[in-house]
Amino acid sequence: xxxxxRKEERVKKQIKSEVVSEDLISLSSTVDLSRxxxxxxxxxxxxxxxxVTLSINSPEGDSIEVKGLVRWLRxxxxxxxxxGMGIEFTKITDSDRKKIEDIIxx
Length: 106
Prior knowledge:
It is built from 1 helix and 7 strands; from the N terminus they run βββββββα. By secondary structure, it is mainly beta. It has a single domain (about 15-105), classed as Thrombin, subunit H (Beta Barrel). The chain is globular. The relative contact order is 0.22.
């Protein structure tokens, strides 16, 4: 997915996160983050369209729980990016969205 299709600006952030789906429970590292989604580095990305629950650890130690949908995959590691998946947030509370906005501003 090219950056011009994104609704929100993404910023590079390395944050620990956990991805849970019917097929996977994975501790991962966030590569970038926006108000509307996240890119998770993982050697075994889920299929596009997979529904997930994300637990994102903020730098302050808070856990942010959101529902998401895998929108795109990067299957091969390339010079400018790691293998992983782009996840769009589909269900997030206002308070958790505010926490994500605070992380982006840091």
